[in-house]
TrEMBL record:
Pfam family, one: DUF892
Lineage of the organism: Bacteria, Pseudomonadati, Bacteroidota, Chitinophagia, Chitinophagales
UniProt cross-references to SUPFAM superfamilies, sorted A to Z: Ferritin-like
Record-linked InterPro entries: DUF892_YciF-like (IPR010287), Ferritin-like (IPR012347), Ferritin-like_SF (IPR009078), YciF (IPR047114)
Organism name: Ilyomonas limi
Protein name: Ferritin-like domain-containing protein
Record's keyword annotation contains Coiled coil: yes
Length: 188
């Protein structure tokens, strides 16, 4: 009887291990898909930030967009490091969310007048929408990396997460210092 119980426990343990292995495979697939998504987002955001910087009015905002564009290029390289760490080829998968946010930023440029603080205020909001998407993505991906035991990847993703939070805060400060106040005084 003891032998049968031991065999039954062993079989149950094997089923549980197989189930956990399948779950980690599913979670790992979801993690890799998320990396591919944010990789596409970052690569396309580099182009969008270049355009937004050229269309901004204030030098402070132009400089902030240029700084973030350079930082985003580094973030793309870091994502490539994460792909290397996890042994997966760095491949971009179209990010519908970022595509929509970039499209919205382009519409803002078309719908606002050149050389106005109103455009700058609108560009800041568009950029912050992208930042908030990135913050959510990197926060989730960093946590998944930890859960999957990919601590080196988690640390890299956490570094980028902090940069995204810092950029969001900087954009808020730029808006509060003078852009929003000046935009409120503009007339048609």
């Amino acid at each position: 009887m003891a032998k049968t119980t031991s065999t039954a426990k062993s079989a149950a343990g094997s089923k549980q291990a197989a189930s956990q292995n399948n779950e980690s495979k599913l979670l790992n697939k979801f993690f890799v898909d998320g990396l591919k998504d944010i990789y596409w987002a970052e690569k396309n955001l580099v182009k969008a930030l270049t355009k937004m910087g050229k269309k901004a009015t204030s030098e402070e905002l132009k400089n902030a967009f240029e700084k973030h564009r350079t930082q985003t290029e580094e973030q793309v390289k870091r994502l490539e490091q994460v792909f290397d760490i996890i042994g997966t080829k760095a491949v971009a998968k179209k990010c519908e969310a970022m595509e929509g946010l970039i499209k919205e930023a382009n519409e803002i440029i078309e719908q606002t007048e050149d050389n106005t603080m109103t455009r700058d205020a609108a560009l800041i909001i568009a950029a912050q929408k992208a930042e908030h998407y990135e913050i959510a993505s990197y926060g989730g991906l960093a946590q998944l990396a930890k859960t999957l035991g990919k601590n080196d990847a988690a640390n890299i993703l956490a570094q980028t997460l902090q940069e995204e939070k810092d950029t969001d805060e900087l954009l808020t400060q730029i808006a509060e210092r003078n852009i929003n106040v000046e935009a409120a005084q503009e007339t048609e």
